[in-house]
Amino acid sequence: MTHQRESAEVIAAEALAWLAGQDELLAVFMGASGITIDEMRQRAAEPEFLAAVLDFLLMDDAWITGFCDAAGLAYDQPRAARAALPGAALDDWA
Q1: Which of the four pLDDT bands, split at 50, 70 and 90, describes residue 73?
Q2: Residue 6 to residue 59: CA distance in whole angstroms
Q3: Angle at CA of residue 55, ends 51 and 60, nearest 5°
Q4: Global confidence as pTM
Q5: N or C terminus: fewer CB in 10 A for the chain?
Q6: Are the C-beta atoms of 8 and 82 separated by less than 8 Å?
Q7: DSSP string, the chain
Q8: Alpha carbon distances (Å) from 49 to 24, 72, 94
Q9: Is it the case that residue 91 has pLDDT exceeding 70?
């Protein structure tokens, strides 16, 4: 695994932890994805799942800025992390 991918997974894991602490937003994520809390725990280390977490947060500027502010990250870091995770090429399908 490359350093870039490792760093991306760390950022995505931080995003998941932040999301887990946002009760209302977590409910939206779970409803949109159909995932349960137990499944989230089981899949928390899977790069594909972590990519899905970033995809979800990247849908709304307020979600990304909230996460970045809490994590002390620049606002462009989640998108860069997403680009290093599986399925990133699908982001530009149009």
Answers
A1: very high
A2: 23
A3: 150
A4: 0.89
A5: C
A6: yes
A7: --HHHHHHHHHHHHHHHHHHT-HHHHHHHHHHH---HHHHHHHTT-HHHHHHHHHHHTT-HHHHHHHHHHHT--TTHHHHHHHTSTTGGGGG--
A8: 20, 22, 23
A9: no
